[in-house]
Amino acid sequence: QVQLVESGGGLVQAGGSLRLSCVASGRTFSSYVMGWFRQAPGKEREFVSAISWNGGKIRYADSVKGRFTISRDNAKNTVYLQMNSLKPEDTAVYYCAAAITLTTIERHFGSWGQGTQVTVSS
């Protein structure tokens, strides 16, 4: 398995931007599909984005398409989530996760980070 640590969360105004990072260790980072999920208070965890090992295949939830950008740097064992035009409904704990193949299904991701809080104010 791979160990994951997220960072970069914080408080931003609506319309602002934030960049999340997730650093992996323990296994070869480039062999994993990487994804981002989020969970708001009182709601279920939901898919945000995923990226294949070579960056050639990317998926986004409809709610973030056009505003968020996922990327990865295999040399740094890091995946990023650039979040622009943030809305109050984006407020949630954001989790980094790793899977064997490209997927948007939560149960297919076997390794998870501890999460980082993102709060968007009006």
State the main characteristics:
122 residues; mainly beta; 7-stranded mixed β-sheet; 4-stranded antiparallel β-sheet; 11 strands; 0% helix
Give a verbal description of the structure.
Helices cover 0% and strands 52% of the residues. The chain is mostly beta strands and 122 residues long. The strands form two sheets. Strands 2, 4, 5, 6, 9, 10 and 11 form a seven-stranded mixed sheet that branches. A four-stranded antiparallel sheet has the order 1-3-8-7, with no helix packed on it. It is globular.
Percent helix, as a range, is under 10%
Q: β content, as a range?
A: over 45%
- Total beta strands: 11
Report low-confidence residues grouped into runs of 5 or more. none
Q: Label the structural class.
A: mainly beta
State the distance separating the first and last CA atoms. 39 Å
Overall pLDDT = 94
Main sheet makeup = 7 strands, mixed
Rounded radius of gyration (Å):
13 Å
Overall 3D shape: globular
Number of helices: 0
Helix-strand pattern, N to C? Answer: EEEEEEEEEEE
